[in-house]
Amino acid sequence: MAEKRKGDLFNQDSKKGKSNSQVDFIKGELFDKELEERINSVELSEEDFNSIDFDDIDDIEISDDIEIENDYDSSYLVSEDKKPSVEVLNRKTLSTKIEDKKVSKAVSKEATKMVKDFIKEDLPIHEVRSILEVTQQDKDLLMSFPLGDKSMSFNDKKELVKKLEEINSTDEVNIANASFVLNWLKKRS
Amino acid sequence: MDKEKNKIQPINSILERVIDFDLYEKYRRNLGFSITPDYLYQWALISLSEDNSDKAISFIISALDIDRKHSPTLHLLKSLIIGISKDFYENGGSKYKQTNETFSQLVSSIKKKALIIKKRNEQLKLEITGLENNINSGLALLKFVRKFQKEKDLIALKNILIENNYKIDNYKKEIKKIRRFQKNEEYSKILGTILEICVMPKKYVITTTKD
Description:
The structure holds 2 protein chains of 2 kinds. By secondary structure, chain A is an all-alpha fold. Chain A has 9 helices and no strands. Residues 1-31 and 60-104 of chain A have low confidence and may be disordered. By secondary structure, chain B is mostly helical. Chain B has a two-stranded antiparallel sheet with strand order 1-2. The longest helix of chain B is centred in the last third of the chain and has 60 residues, at 140-199. Chain B is elongated and about 100 Å long. Chains A and B meet through helix 1, helix 2, helix 3, helix 6 and helix 7 of A and helix 3, helix 5, helix 7 and helix 8 of B.
């Protein structure tokens, strides 16, 4: 019912050949200016501001007339059956001194399967690669990004970015890391 | 004066060296397995996939505490830093940084704007109810005349209400975005420092002096 009313209002507007802007519509000739002023005159007093708990922003109710759009895609949520089980690695094969050839074992079969699922579902491979490849632009952005603590000097930061570029693992691990990070970023947006 | 560098070693390795083997074995076995950097790295991935970023960072710290050169974890750290930085700039984070306000101040000022509109909406709802009651009271002929006279105003008021709700919704989205940038900044500080500790350790070496 409420949705229909909202739709009707917009339709009236478009039928008149005006723009769909609600602002145009409310400035119609017959609109009571006094009424408009009365509405707009409502301001928060100092007392109001002092009594506001700014953490209550989520309590601001949206009218039933408006359909609230979900900010996230439900497909990004990890369903119960997708939650990986932890594969406990064998101490004999994975000591704290890992040889490069054994590194790929760091990504469990479950994680590898999840990566494949991410890519199959909604992670374009070129986006995954964009996390893996550090371009000059990325390095420039990192230099102006608040990386590390305040005591980090410009030269330290430059060296850090250079060292960051050199960090690498096996292809399997690299792709897994980039996919998990990208998937995490998408879920946050 | 001799200078001696202290190298931080995992507790487990120290115990293995310094206490009786039986005693070491007894407590090591209690866990049923030995924590390896790989194990912690996997937990970091799992935590990320469950959107538990704080936990993921804790696992990264623990993994690198065991092995500062653990390449899967170091690479995960690198990917996170690059990803967060890209996310920050691609979503307009730098635009917000150009203002003189901190992210917290920005969030507060947007909240104020939203709350003013919320107050206006309360007034608006009262006006709408009053107008509707006025239109629907009295004889049928009066109702018809009032409806003809006031319907336009009623529609306009409802339209303002809708528009205000859109504004509040947009403010909420903006707050969500800024909070995300705020979190990105927090992550980049901790992750950048962890990276610095691992790849440029000289700055963090604790030296003790001996006479």
